[in-house]
Design a protein that fits this description.
By secondary structure, this protein is of the alpha+beta class. It is built from 2 helices and 4 strands; from the N terminus they run αββββα. Strands 1-2-3-4 form a 4-stranded antiparallel sheet, with no helix packed on it. A hairpin with a 2-residue loop joins β1 and β2. The radius of gyration is 15 Å and the shape is globular.
């Protein structure tokens, strides 16, 4: 009966559900527990020709084919684009290390 209004994506499901069952989600480094009060929440998704990154303060959708933002709305001009770039770099580094 509780509604969680945080942005999340698929990797967050296991990191949210396992602790509810008393199990550790520590090894699932790309997910976040959406029930954690300290977690601000964000969602990243990709599709064939682009990606999207959503937070409570921004919506950024980039299209690789058109080489442009389809949507780029932000109430946080100081950090505009920094978070998704850091996430992509982290994911790439992890992928290349395997």
């Amino acid at each position: 009966g509780e509604r969680i209004s945080k942005y999340g994506c698929q990797p967050d499901l296991i990191s949210t559900l396992l602790p509810q069952m008393g199990l550790s989600a520590r090894k699932y480094i790309f997910g976040k527990n959406l029930l954690d009060q300290g977690q601000k929440g964000f969602a990243f998704y990709d599709y064939e020709n682009g990606f999207g990154f959503l937070t409570p303060k921004s919506e950024q959708i980039y299209d690789f084919t058109g080489k442009r933002y389809v949507a780029n709305h932000s109430n946080d001009k100081k950090n505009d684009g920094i978070t998704w770039k850091a996430l992509i770099q982290y994911l790439y580094k992890d992928f290349m290390s395997r």
